[in-house]
Design goal:
By secondary structure, this protein is of the alpha/beta class. The protein folds into three domains: 54 residues, lambda repressor-like DNA-binding domains (434 Repressor (Amino-terminal Domain), Orthogonal Bundle); 125 residues, Rossmann fold (3-Layer(aba) Sandwich), CATH 3.40.50.2300; 128 residues, 3-Layer(aba) Sandwich (Rossmann fold). Strands 2-1-3-4-5-11 form a six-stranded parallel beta sheet, with helices on both faces. Strands 7-6-8-9-10-12 form a six-stranded mixed beta sheet, with helices on both faces. The protein starts with 10 loop residues before the first helix and ends in an 11-residue tail after the last strand.
């Protein structure tokens, strides 16, 4: 009677024995550089126990680089990429990728369908890594990408948890600069329009305002929430004027919201900066073209994109870069001049 050849163990069996996902087992077997030592040891132990021998053609496929990276944004509006903020981020990413063979892919991923598209691309290994932006709350997009075992860099830290690799701006410090400046102009009745409070930027900019106002003995509850858009700034400013008609200064957590607030103040007969001083955040081109030109906290937006891409390329190449928080500074214009500068 002819003896049947022994069945060869499969990759799935190795993964089950090691207690890891199939993709993590594959990356460990193929010596991918971004695999934890714990995972690698568990997979090597399972291989020895089962007598697993990798398939050479499958190994070649698994080790192939896709020569592409994804910028996935937790947002559902395609017009987002026309926003000057994201335009500068993409410009910085593109400049960093210029010296590589990596192609940039853009994806909106706030809906379950959008996240599934990103997941399909990453699972099919059509991308070597991913950059994430605009994460909100306990965003499932970060957990999804983390589970796939690919390099992930986050632009702007999420509200919950601390990613292994991120690039962010000093949002809290920037808000302190804005509030300190308004106090230095002699203002005492200062309100703020926040960004979305399920984002780290929104929360940190509010905290910076509240901390600085409290240290100066000022009211810290003159607060209305916006969503970083111009219309939300206009509406929030109207609510603030209804409840605090005597306000004499306003810090808006984005230039877009500050532009909307300027529109509302003008409609209500308030002169800027004589009646109300206004400071924004981002120092986008719009800040130079509002009436009057807008004092704003400058964050290095293009550098944020550049450093995200540079960090991701380093991870793909097996390096261990350090996360970054970029500094902010104040650009003073006519909407909130210091005394004597008018």
């Amino acid at each position: 009677m002819e003896t049947q050849p022994a069945r060869r163990p499969t990759l799935d069996e190795v993964a089950r024995r090691a207690g890891v996902s199939r993709s993590a087992a594959s990356r460990a077997i193929n010596n991918a550089r971004h695999v934890s030592s714990t995972t690698r040891e568990a997979v090597e132990h399972a291989i020895r126990e089962l007598g697993y021998v990798p398939n050479p053609s499958a190994r070649a496929l698994a080790t192939r680089q896709a020569a592409a990276v994804i910028l996935a944004v937790s947002h559902n509006d395609p017009a987002l990429f026309a926003d000057p903020f994201f335009g500068q981020v993409i410009g910085g990413i593109s400049a960093a990728l210029e010296t590589t063979d990596l192609v940039l892919m853009l994806a909106l991923a706030s809906s379950s369908r959008g996240r599934e598209r990103v997941q399909r691309v990453l699972r099919s290994r059509r991308a070597d890594g991913v950059m994430l932006m605009s994460l909100r709350g306990d965003d499932p997009l970060y957990r999804l990408t983390e589970q796939l075992g690919l390099p992930v860099v986050v632009g702007g830290r999420p509200l919950h948890g601390e990613p292994a690799w991120y690039v962010d701006a000093d949002n809290r410090g920037g808000a302190r600069l804005a509030t300190e400046h308004l106090i230095a102009t002699g203002r005492r009745r200062i309100a703020t329009i926040t960004g979305q409070l399920d984002t780290r930027a929104g929360v940190d900019r509010l905290r910076g305002f509240q901390e600085t106002a409290a240290l100066a003995g000022l009211e810290t509850t003159w607060v209305e929430e916006g969503d970083f858009t111009e219309d939300s700034g206009a509406q929030a400013a109207a609510r603030l004027l209804a409840t605090h008609p005597d306000l004499d200064a306003l810090f808006a957590a984005s230039d877009n919201m500050a532009a909307g607030a300027l529109r509302t103040l003008k409609a209500h007969g308030r002169s800027v900066p004589e009646d109300v001083a206004v400071v924004g955040f981002d120092d986008l081109p719009i800040a130079r073209h509002t009436s009057p030109p807008l004092t704003s906290v400058n964050q290095p937006i293009q550098a944020l994109g550049h450093e995200m891409a540079k960090m991701l390329v380093g991870l793909i190449n097996g390096e261990r870069p350090s996360s970054l928080i970029l500094p902010t500074r104040l650009t003073v214009r006519e909407s909130a001049p210091l005394p004597g500068d008018r």
